[in-house]
Structures are given as C-alpha cells and as structure tokens.
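BACKBONE STRUCTURE TOKENS:
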Amino acid sequence: MLEPSIPLLTPPPPPAWLEASRRPFHADMYALYNSAWGGIVTDPLYMQVPVDDHLVHRGDGVFETLKCVGGRIYCLAEHLERLRFSSGRIGLTAPCDDAELGRRIIATLRAAGRRDALVRVILSRGPGGMGINPYECPTPHLYILVHKLVPPFMTIHPGGAHLVTCDIPVKAGLFATIKTCNYLPNALMKKEAVDRGADFAVNVDEQGHIAEGATENIGLVTTGGVLWIPRPERILNGTTMNRAWVLADRGLAEGWLSGKERRAFGIDDLAGAAEILVFGTTTNVTAVTRLDRQPVSGGTPGPVQARLNALLLDEQSSDNPFTTHAFA
C-alpha cells in the first residue's frame, strides 16, 4: 500500500489520439512519480514532461539511476549523496530531504510492483519559460521513473565485451564530475560504439589519459595484478566502481590482487593490461575481451573480473548497509 500522501493517480482513459501513440517500448516503463501532480501514474502515456521544463529545452537538471534487485535498492544513500552534490553545484534545490526522497522512491517502486527494476531519479529546474534564464522557472520538479532492468552484460554475453576508443571530447571541469541531464556527448559515444559494432566506447582527455565510457567507468588490472581506476578529476565518480574498489580489498587479503591504485593511465596501458574492466549500474563488473578489435590478454574474461563481479552481485542481493528494502 502506498503512503497516503503519495497517491496512485487514476487518470481517465487516454483519448484516441493519445492512445494511437502507444508503442511496444512503453511496456518497459512501469511507474512515474511527478512532484507537480503529487502522485504516481502507471500508464506510460501519462508519463510526460512539460515542454517548457528547462530539462527539455536546456538539459537543465541532474539525475541518478538506481538499481533494485530482489526488492533491495542498491546504494540508495550513495546515489542520493551524489544527486545532492550535482544539484548543489548547479544551484538546484530538491523539493524534499533525502529521507523523504527515499520514501517517494520506495512508493514508486511499490506502485510499479517490480522487485527487479531501474529507478531514474530526475531533478529538473522545472517549467516556466522557453528562455535560457533558469530564474524563469519558479519551482524545481522531481520525476521518479521505474523502468525495466535488463540482465547484466556478462549474463547475456559471457564471452566479454568489445571496447573502442573514441574522439568525443571529455567534459571540462565542473561538468566532468557532476551528473547533469545534458548527456549529448554520452549519447554520441554510445552511437559511435554501436556504429562501429562495439559494446562500449571510452574517451581520453587532453593528456591522453583514459576518462570514461558513455555511462560506465573503465579500469584495468596490470600484468602484476594491480587494479587501476582513473583519478576523479575528469570523470563521474561511479558508485559501482567505488563499491568494486572497496570490495577489491578482499582480493588483497586473499591474494588474487597485489595492489590497487587510483592513477592516470592511457590507451597503451589498456592494450597491455591483463584485464580491462567496465563498471556500471547495469553492467556491474564487465570483462573487456577486445579493444579496438584486438584481443585483450588472450580474448577471454579474466579472474579478477569474475571475483569482483561475484562479490558485487552477492552484495546487491543480500541484507547489508548498502541495500534498502523497498517492499515489506
């Protein structure tokens, strides 16, 4: 049952002209909370954003994507902390505190009735005008969308991923470290990966250092067994990468890693690595077995990826400080 203050709205049946716009992909959208309405809808045709919201015509907003596995939300506090950081850096204030935001997320998951799902939390500048001035928008809007969770990459592709390097510029300064809704560079990176028959793309900064993927972080394991991940100055500091970084301490204790470092590294380091790893909310820890069409260390997934991924999956599906029950 939903909280009384977060109602499940029952809009009228869509008119014929709106019903005609229903598409098969709408089946992957389960529930939307809209702060302007103060409630939740479950018909995708009503999951709409005003065209004058700065989110639409200026990309003016921030977001987080959370994963719910078996009814447990993974890293809820960590995602909300990053949402606060991103929104604070652009002068955008959420309409509620983290405790209330968590309550609304849980209510939307319950309305969706899905124990396995992704949750997109979007904080926008809100509607108010078609100009560039953010002060045209008097009230921020909060949208919480529960949608389909696809199986992790390695479940579908156990042979590993193909990663390509690309020329899409790294975001500069502030924009590299916050998660805004202006994802045009990220979308173009994914487009390039698909156009080149690859699974993921990664870009490099002006010094030739590996930055990040379209929605993923990139790391490697050296031939000496040391885990490297990028320094945080020119990347979005991924929650999955950070959890894997902590879980890597098990590898140090058990001997399947000899060290770990946050440092700059380049394409040549990737090419000579024992393993290349992709970290992401939906991908977990993925093995890269081809880099720019060339095999990586024999072209098969490596042991560090398997162990880190197993630790991450176990953490996501068990009761611990990093999981929050969404269902009673």
Q: What stands out?
A: The mean pLDDT is 96. The first helix runs from residue 16 to 19. The radius of gyration is 21 Å.
